[in-house]
Amino acid sequence: MDQPLLQGDSNQRSVVFFRLLKRCLPILTWLPKYNIKCLQMDLLAGFTVGLTTVPQVLAYAEVAGLPVQYGLYSAFMGGFIYALLGTSKDVTLGPTAIMSLLCFSVVGGEPQRAVLLSLLCGIIQAGTALLRLGFLLDFVSFPVIKGFTCAAAITIGFGQVQNLLGLKDIPHEFFPQVYCTLSRIPEARIGDVVLGVLCVAVLMMLMMMVKTSVGSEDSPRYSRIAQTFVWTVATMRNALVVVAASLCAFSWEAYGHHVFTITGKTAQGLPAFKPPPTSDTSANGTVVPFKQLVQDFGGGLAVIPFMGLLESIAIAKAFGVIVLLSLAFLMPAFYYIPKACLAAVIICAVAPMLDYHVVADMWRIHKLDLLPFIVTFLMSLWQVQYGIMGGVAVSAALLMYSMARPHTQMSGEGVLLIQLSNGLSFPAAEHLSYIIHTKALQVSPARSVVLDCHHVSMIDYSVIHELSDLLRHFKVQHLHLIFSGLQPHILEVLLAANLEGFIFADSVETALQM
Q1: 97, 168, 170, 450 — which has fewest CB within 10 A?
Q2: Domain stop point among 353, 370, 396
Q3: What is the rounded distance in angstroms from the CA atom of residue 371 to the CA atom of residue 177?
Q4: Integer Cα distance of 141 and 50 in angstroms
């Protein structure tokens, strides 16, 4: 009898272990089901998204103030790791406009610090997952996110106007940047302006064309082919525009005419595989220790990991085929990419983020939501890394105020009926006591009170303590405080508290007759 039992326990342990292993390595779940058709679709997706990604990540490296090759470095590593550990097919990997802006605001365009920041943010995100702290994202409200993204779109977009105009030595802070850029418009380079405006116009036109759907099966064959061609060209718009602009710049440079501001020489191939630096050297040669680096990152270590999680709702596909080839063979070709063209790519990428319709919607639906939106928007223009913090603080204050001042409705003549609209927790305890005292005990004549609690889903010790004092006051004046419509778990808590003079009824009607 013992042998089969031991064997059964061993098999059960093996099953549990394999389930745990598949949970830790999701590749074990989908890889056995992988087939040639999936490979064909992934290759097509990788090629398409790769052509879109390469020019974008080059542009985002410009936003982060880093050499362009760092955009490519950050674009492919996430794909390799996510293939083993990823659990969602709809997630964005690699640099984005907002993350690039946040990176620049924290590290100031220093590559070594950017690498260390990436490592620390990854550790924070892993710790957040292990500790199940994802619920903290629920406290970042929609108005806060919209306020931040709108401000980021303006900051990133206007930050590229200098490249569109061919200007240099423009401040990075938003308001000085606006003043300096506008005041130096007469210094703009004609070649950069013409090329940049032309690239923006072409990209905007192709963005509108990409919305054209592929023809249905009932459409004529030539019509479906034409629509598919248009959709393909519009999807690869970034790559096509960058290639065309680079060829144009190369042609002028070949004849000795420096018409455009170009990217210049970039490092070819992959960097050496080594741990991130834990110290840095300042401009005057002073060694900056790890502790000081972390202190310099400041609030960025809180904002960037959570922004990365919030951005994970975007669509992503595998594109490491193309990015690695670019690093290995195409880096010399990036020499001739005009900066005005990359600026056009960034401006067109962030333009949809400026969702001005949401302001009108919030004004129409819930005007109070405009407060965290405006605070986040203005603070993000001033110091981008503090925008979300300010918005979350305002949203939290509004939330706490609603908890501390729960909505109540009062009616009745002989007996005061108070209807509570939500849960009762410690911020609301004193306010509830104040209402009952002023509306029932301190009037002449004093009145009994019926509390309609059918909406109350929570209650804590502070409220229980306050109710105990109220019940004593009602008893002194020979009045009653009656609870009606209590949910079972709330009734259980109140009964466990042994409140002197506690009376409850199943319904308001019953309570009014007591």
Answers
A1: 168
A2: 396
A3: 26
A4: 33
